[in-house]
Amino acid sequence: MKLLIRSVRVIDKKSAFNGQVKDILIAGGKIEKIGDGLEADGAEVVEAGGLSVSAGWLDMRVQSRDPGFEHKEDLKSVREAAARGGFTEIVLLPNTQPVVDSKDTLNYIRHSGTGGLVTLRPAAAVTRKTEGVDFTEMMDLHEAGAVAFTDGEHPVQNADLLLKTILYLRPLNALLMNRPEDRQLTLYGQMHEGVTSTLIGMKGMPSLAEEMMLIRDLKLLEYALEQNTYDTAAPVLHISLVSTTQAVALIREAKAKGLPVSCDVAAHQLAFEDKDLLGFDTNLKVNPPFRSAAELEAIRRGLADGTIDAIVSDHNPQDEESKNLEFDHADFGITGLETAFSLVLMHSNLNVEDIVEKLTAAPRRILRLPEVALEEGAEANLTFFEPDAEWVFNKSYSKSKNTPFLGQTLKGKVRGVINNGKQAWY
User: Which of 7, 166, 195, 264 has its C-alpha lying 20 to 30 A from 417's C-alpha?
Assistant: First the structure.
């Protein structure tokens, strides 16, 4: 592949060309030249007037459903949806059938994405079958290429198990990801516990359920590090999908104390409040649930001040049989890969540079992955987008269509991705 992209704006805080409009020549899968007025015999030319380019985006939280639930999503369709959303790398949760708790299942996923436009990075389960009882062979899974360890949709409830996982993974320099939720406090819950849940008679899921478990997790992390002296430059514990005012404050305090912790928020969490569920749209049934306006503002402040490190799609495909039901019987989840960038751009109050950083440099740092550089000689792992463009989300490339955004006009359009010597333009 020899490709010349003319007049594209570079968005990368670490690049010497940040904010500048440049030509980029790509040859043999690498960035050969960045400059002005470039020419290249035999190169395919893309006139990119109005486009921006950054390092390829990475999504830290995606459900693939493959193996086991391919009718909801498979590895081919999730890669297509990811590319359309601007993601060149995605971390897949282990909640498949079988669960990603063995090298065979891990390697099946890894090899399915080898050399493709979208790189698949599987996270392995902490416990067998994500049942929260017996440990997996984490050392073997780490050596086989697991990018992190998590029980995914099943927050680790056992405190002793979580503590021992931290102690076990730390010498491996491996990451534990956990979503804080006390399942006893959210039992039978359908939405955020508040005025709206009371008005419509729906069992609520209190913010306390997230905050109590987060206090526990941070205390266990602090205790583990007191007992063992390790280099803690990289996060040891990553908190997935923060959604409450107090959760943001707790993580802010933990970072101020020097604890090696990081966190993310789902893009769709920025777009709705609990009152938006008055219409009983099951596409708005997510976990953690959409919370109050005050908590939404706390999330935005956490993004602005750097407390929240990364943004994820929390892509969670569900078929019609799982969503086209009464609200209290419907499954949780939204498909988010194709709309994540637009939602953050429209609802976060962040500038484009900061959004890109939370989709590129931050998740790679957390996951101990190599930086993707926008410089000459670097591998071409790039996302092209038009921040000011409006577009209608009229077709989803996911197998499942459980999204409230179909048919809506959004801002911020992904125009193309390049990775592993392959390219796609939209």
Answer: 264
Is residue 52 within 8 Å of residue 44, measured between CB atoms? no
| Active site residues per annotation | 314
0.90 exceeded by pTM: yes
280-310 in b/e burial notation, b at 16+ Cβ within 10 A? eebbbbbbbbbbbeebbebbbebbeeebbbb
Q: Do 153 and 105 lie in a common domain?
A: yes
| Most distant CA atoms of the chain, gap in Å | 68
Q: How many domains does the chain have?
A: 2
349-387 in b/e form (b: 16+ CB < 10 A) is ebebebbbbbbbbbbbbbbeeeebebeeeebbbbbbbbb
User: How confident is the model at residue 229, as a pLDDT?
Assistant: 61
Residue 372 within any structural domain of the chain: no
Closest CA relative to residue 374, chosen from 16, 2, 3, 4: 16
| CATH code for position 413 | 2.30.40.10
Residue 234 belongs to a domain: yes
Containing domain of residue 382, as a range?
A: 2-52+378-425
pLDDT at residue 230 tops 60? no
SS3 261: strand
Least confident of 47-51, 97-101, 106-110, 244-248: 47-51
Q: Tell whether the model's pLDDT for residue 193 goes beyond 90.
A: yes
Please check whether residue 172 is in contact with residue 144, taking contact to mean a CB–CB distance below 8 angstroms. no
Summarised one tens digit per residue, pLDDT across range 115-159 is 999 999 999 999 999 999 999 999 999 999 999 999 999 999 999
